[in-house]
Design goal:
Elements: H1 6-16, E1 21-25, E2 30-32, H2 33-49, E3 57-61, H3 66-77, E4 81-84, H4 91-100, E5 103-108, H5 110-113, E6 126-129, E7 134-137, H6 141-152, E8 173-178, E9 188-192, H7 193-206, E10 215-218, H8 225-238, E11 241-244, H9 251-261, E12 266-268, H10 270-284, H11 295-308, E13 316-318, H12 325-334, E14 338-340, E15 342-343, E16 350-352, E17 371-376, E18 385-391, E19 397-398, H13 402-408, E20 415-423, E21 429-434, E22 439-440, E23 446-447, H14 449-456, E24 462-470, E25 473-480, H15 482-487, H16 492-507, E26 516-521
Parallel strand pairs: 1-11, 3-4, 3-5, 5-6, 10-11, 12-13, 13-14, 25-26
Antiparallel strand pairs: 1-2, 6-7, 8-9, 9-19, 15-16, 17-18, 18-20, 20-21, 22-23, 24-25
Helix pairs in contact: 1-8, 2-3, 2-6, 7-8, 10-11
């Protein structure tokens, strides 16, 4: 079969859905597919005027919004290489990444522009403000005038037939996506078109009901591959309508927005799901313990959760980090339509995913059809080991980092993910944690802090936690649930004594080789990655042995 071209898939979708809504800012601008086409072709002409063509880099740095999607597709469809950069980076980091990727054009949000200095990015031909596509910096003044004239002048396209996107080949470089993971070291992941196409094909299999009549709310960062693939690229290939959430996804914001839009599928991270579940539990005055749930409470809990997400979705896809085990048991017990997947930037991003009614509890779904998974363990089903992946979704390497690239690839084209997990006979993947966070006891026992943290996070008054090694002992760093603390009128001393008592009880349930010796209360949330994973390296105390 002839390899599919992602750009031609996008072109066909735009043509077929010309008069339908494509991209919206919740409460703001809405672009029809024909508007997206007009902007794309106008920007393609601008790239050409700026000497930016096939293989040249176009950096994109702004909050999620409709025109983010336009800028991304304009670069992709012209044969250039879009480089999403997280808007949360400091100015110095943005300067560095723009220079590191050799970007010729930079799209940036208005708030970010205020912090940037064009003089330290000498290779740029232009900086374009995202909100209105105005050129705010260009050494060549003609470029400013040309884009302004094209945006305000005659339509760039008169109809669907005018579109002609770059035809990509499987191994062409499509995207450079800079990771911002728990290790704190950003690397430019070079993803080829085959990786993106494979991921789209997996979504076609696992979400076949998504089409041109579907609505999706984007609340994940589009600068991260999870949000980019699951909330934008796939939707644009099927003609769906993407609504960009313009506020942080708190339970209240989600309920308000989703009740209006009623999305057909929901993409989320565990932190959002866990917050909403705990709010439901408080409202119903029940427990996560599934054995204590009556049929009526189960029904009410499922209805409340379903309505929170709009009541119209086929399933909620959870990814980006492990889902709390007790929360997952609760969701399954009440009959909530959810599924858990796994992935990483280097895989574009999906590694495993199954529809909600064909998955297994406490797994990340079945391995994707396009990759092989190998566990570095004498007993891959029962004994955790490092997860290795090989397949058509893998990245080409880290940009300008041959040594780091060589370190993660072993013989036979296997990619070392750094995750620790097991794989059952049916191909369902279960993850325990990261190799770098594993703690080794003096007796040779492996401790996976993520598993202990999952139990701690279920305790009353705990919002989130980290387990670290300090002087050969395990210490729990805890950020309390400030809302519940305030509602119960508790002092800091009360919280500490309550949690100390709860941890003492929890130690009785943990294996004897990994007791928590003490706790530390943190006054603010832990710093996180775009996937809402805690940046563990910021809180490490010493070498991980106990």
């Amino acid at each position: 079969m002839e390899p599919r071209s992602l750009n031609k898939m996008l072109e066909t979708s735009i043509r077929n859905n010309w008069e339908r809504p494509a991209l919206s800012n919740c409460g703001g601008e809405t672009l029809l597919y024909k508007d997206v086409a007009r902007y794309i072709v106008t920007l393609q002409r601008f790239f050409e005027s700026a000497g930016t063509g096939r293989g040249d880099k176009v950096a994109i740095c702004s909050r999620n919004q409709a025109r983010w999607g336009v800028a991304f597709m304009a670069a992709l469809s012209s044969g250039a290489v879009p480089v999403p950069i997280l808007q949360d980076f400091r100015a110095a980091s943005i300067h560095y990444l723009v220079n590191h990727c050799d970007a010729r054009i930079l799209f940036a949000g208005a708030s970010i522009l205020e912090t940037l200095n064009p003089k330290v990015m000498p290779n740029l031909k232009a900086i374009v403000r995202m909100e209105d596509f105005a050129v705010v910096y260009a050494p060549d003044e003609h470029l400013k005038e040309s884009l302004a004239e094209d945006m305000g002048g005659n339509p760039a396209v008169s109809g669907p037939a005018d579109l002609d996107f770059y035809i990509d080949s499987p191994d062409d470089l499509a995207i450079i996506n800079y990771t911002s993971g728990t290790s704190g070291f950003a690397k430019g992941v070079m993803l080829p078109y085959r990786s993106l196409v494979k991921n789209v094909e997996l979504m076609e299999q696992t979400a076949p009901g998504l089409d041109c009549y579907s609505n999706v709310v984007s609340m994940l960062p589009t600068a991260h591959m999870y949000g980019l693939m699951m909330d934008l690229i796939f939707e644009m290939t099927v003609g769906a309508h993407v609504h960009f959430l313009m506020r942080p996804p708190s339970p209240m914001v989600i309920r308000e927005t989703f009740s209006t839009i009623r999305p057909d599928i929901v993409m989320s991270v565990p932190l959002v799901i866990e917050k909403i579940v705990r709010r439901v539990i408080q409202t119903l005055d029940c427990q996560l313990d599934t054995g204590s749930l009556t049929p009526e409470v189960r029904r009410q809990a499922c209805e409340m959760l379903t309505e929170t997400f709009g009541g119209n979705f086929s399933e909620v896809v959870v990814g980006g980090a492990p889902l709390n085990r007790e929360v997952e048991d609760f969701l399954r017990a009440i009959g909530f339509r959810y599924t858990v997947g796994s992935g990483m930037t280097e895989c574009g991003p999906l590694v495993s995913l199954s529809p909600w009614d064909r998955t297994k509890p406490h797994t990340c779904g079945k391995r994707a059809f396009y990759n092989e998974i190998r566990i570095d363990s004498p007993d891959p089903v029962n004994v955790p080991g490092e997860v290795y992946i090989r397949g058509g979704n893998l990245f080409l390497g880290y940009y300008k980092m041959p040594r780091e690239t060589a370190e993660v690839f072993s013989g036979g084209g296997w990619f070392r993910t750094g995750d620790i997990g097991t794989l059952d006979e049916e191909g369902f993947l279960s993850l325990k944690g990261r190799c770098k966070s594993m703690i080794l006891t003096a007796a040779g026992q492996n401790i996976y802090p993520e598993e202990i943290e999952s139990s701690i996070n279920n305790l009353p008054y705990v919002q989130e936690s980290l387990v670290v090694s300090v002087k050969n002992q395990l210490v729990a760093l805890i950020y309390p649930d400030q809302e519940r603390v305030a509602s119960d009128g508790m002092s800091e001393a009360d919280v500490y004594q309550t949690l100390k008592s709860e941890i003492r009880a929890l130690n009785g349930e943990l294996p004897a080789y990994c007791p928590i010796s003490r706790i530390e209360i943190f006054p603010e949330e832990f710093e996180k990655t775009p996937k809402n994973s805690i940046k563990r390296y910021l809180y490490d105390r010493e070498t991980k042995t106990v």
